[in-house]
Amino acid sequence: MAAVSRQAATPPDTWRRRVVIHGVLAAAWMIGVTALLGARGDWSELPRDLVIPTLVGLLGSAMLASVGGTSRGRIMVGASSEVLFGLLASIPVLLLVVVTMFDLQGPETPLSVDPGATFAGAVKCDLLIIGVGLPLLGLGWALLRGLILARPALSGACVGLGAATWAHAILRVHCPMGGASHAIIGHLLPAIPVMALGAWVFSARAHVDRATPADGSDR
Amino acid sequence: MLLPWMASVDVTADPLDQAMARFASGEDAALGDVYDLASPAVFTFLLRLCRDRLMAEDLTQETFLRLHRARGLYRAGAPVMPWAYTIARRLFLDAVRAQRHDTATTHGSADRGDGGETPAAMAREIAATGPSAEELLADRQLAAAVDAALSRLPEAQASAFRLLKGEGLSVAETAAIMGTTRGAVKLRAHRAYEALRVLLAVHLTGRVAGAVVNPGDRRVSKQTEPPAPGPTAGSLSSKSRGDTP
Fold this sequence. Notes:
The structure holds two protein chains of two kinds. Chain A is mostly helical.
């Protein structure tokens, strides 16, 4: 332990500083993407009684999943299994309710009538949600570096669900397409690969950490 | 009402948690206190999991390196031991996965028993203890039998038993360490009690009565005939039932 003792002192409040830094980076990424993509043309004309519940539901779900997935937990090993299982079971149901009760009752666009165009639009939204969500997943992964999680796969899936839901909220402002098929295939389904990737990356990280030389740094 | 200079002193807190808080806040010298206070329990826990002293020593060092790396993430006031046990268990599982195909090494180390003590060394120690040698021998044999029985259980059941009964942790803490729910911990511990009851009955009565042990999957299955109700086995049996959470 003598070599360990020679390491520099740890600045206090490392966790708080990490959360702030990663939160600012995530917010900057999401604001940048939102500005880059822009809002749909008829955004200002959409009925507020549908838009507000949709965005509140999406942003609330994203916040719950992200906070639950990146929580240190009571003993610094991540959130408890009950919490993670509960979030992973309830948030997809909540999203489905938001999408079917509010989002899909918005104005139908002519594009949704054409199956080919609907499919092409869904693929575009799939790729956008995955592309926007992956950096957020990476930030969640970086936030938890150094911690050994009791259930890394569940934590990773939860962070992935949060990342995909943040991206879903951004895309909801931008995407001009309506219809149940588009909302489910183009906006909800891409959460599955992001969740799976999160679960895999967080699980694999434990083995990578094990193989990393013990240099005593915070990395 | 506390005076201002007393406000920062929490006399009720665990010394280990206090030392970890000092270490996490940048006082490097506190690492020695953390190590001195926590390492014996971590090493014992790992030794009972590994049944290999060298591996346990290696994993104990690795556990403290992980604690050192993650010191900045320590939540002030949080209990250190469950955290340390979680890290130790994860490291053990990773090591087992890495060596899974190397069965010869595993069997070789398992045969050594707890602490790697030889019968001759035990006999010398027993001889040096004087009049209570027989009791000491019986205790040693019972402890060895419990360890041997635990080593035949699935890791999840054995860990639940050891954390609850060996380390004295709560069901909630054990669930957090094992990354599972409280209900699952209770179920695993209950299965461990049942399996231990059967295995120890077999050991203490010296005959296989109503139990079939399948070393292949390290599970114990009961047959229709119950274990022979010898006096010692009966007392163990009732104790096990009473311990069920």
